[in-house]
Amino acid sequence: MSGNERASSRGRTMKSTVYFLLAAGILTLAASLVGISDSPPGIALLYGAGLMSVLAVVHRWKQPKRFGILFLGSVAAFFIMVIVHNFAEVGADRISHLPALAVVLSGLSVVGFVIAVIVCPMAGVVGALGWVATAGRQIRNGT
Q: Is 0.85 topped by the overall pTM?
């Protein structure tokens, strides 16, 4: 592969990454406009945004090992983020007399919740499906 082909390929993947991130932003905005409180369409849009965020990172991957690590990491991250969310929420309640620190812990609680409920499941799905697809391709190609 020549230098020009490599640069062209890099430009296409960078463009794809930007498009995935743009789609994630648009879906997040749409979810906030529709509303996510007891609204299945809004929740579906938010899951779509999580999926686009994960795809922005992994769309160039071709090795099954990377997808396997993504899957296992998403399972581990789910449990870690649930713990972070719970400890931050309890901590924010306990130190409500220190408003600045309580606000920071409340924000950490929300971020932990969103990662645990939206990003980790989508990363797990992409990791599992990507592993199956890339491993199947390697088996078919005999590599």
A: no
